């Protein structure tokens, strides 16, 4: 009896089973990285083959005591989890603050904005004087650093100055490049925006 085909079949089954340990509900949602027109702006497609697979949006097993609807940001592994029922979470790849600009703690989403205005904080303007022209705000658009959506983090009723937001710089996902805010692919922040509620708890660790 030739057992080679059986061994090959077993290998396929085993690989599928192992993949299912971390990802639930089928393949990564690559279709949602296509070009999309939103509010008159045409977001370009993400070259998804160039984005490491672990940073593409996917449903994963995720055990936590936090309630569904909570957002948990893992700045070490560069993941953001939107907690779902039954031990699952939607996981997104993120870019985080570079050294010296990190932030951690617990906050709440106080506001949600589509195609937000970006206003650089004064400390950033002091570091980069050329941004002074945007002291009154940069209007929405494809080059706006906040991207297609922004979620504003407040703690104790005060604005932390930190945001969960989109970015056109897809290559920055998985890296520490920002001035402290948590950035997601534009298509991913749009997905998260539609899931999360104002008032939701956000844990950044």
Automatic annotation (TrEMBL):
The pathway noted for it is: Cell wall biogenesis; peptidoglycan biosynthesis
Under the heading PROSITE patterns, the entry gives:
LD_TPASE, PROKAR_LIPOPROTEIN
Coiled coil segments of this chain: none
Q: Where is the signal peptide?
A: 1-19
Gene3D superfamilies tied to this protein = L,D-transpeptidase catalytic domain-like
Question: Which molecular-function annotations from GO does this UniProt entry contain?
Answer: glycosyltransferase activity; peptidoglycan L,D-transpeptidase activity
Catalytic site positions: 165, 181
By its UniProt entry, which Pfam families does this protein fall under? YkuD
In terms of superkingdom, the source organism counts as: Bacteria
Domain L,D-TPase catalytic per the UniProt entry, residue ranges:
69-205
The record's GO CC annotations read: extracellular region
GO biological process: what's one of them?
Answer: cell wall organization
Q: Keyword annotations for this protein?
A: Cell shape, Cell wall biogenesis/degradation, Glycosyltransferase, Hydrolase, Peptidoglycan synthesis, Signal, Transferase
Tell me if Metal-binding is a UniProt keyword of this record: no
**Database matches in InterPro entries:** LD-transpeptidase, LD_TPept_cat_dom, Transpep_catalytic_dom
Report whether Disulfide bond shows up as a keyword of the record.
Answer: no
Give the UniProt family note.
Belongs to the YkuD family.
PANTHER family in the record, alphabetically?
Answer: L,D-TRANSPEPTIDASE (PTHR30582), L,D-TRANSPEPTIDASE ERFK_SRFK-RELATED (PTHR30582:SF24)
Q: Any idea what this protein is called?
A: L,D-TPase catalytic domain-containing protein
* Species of provenance: Paramesorhizobium deserti
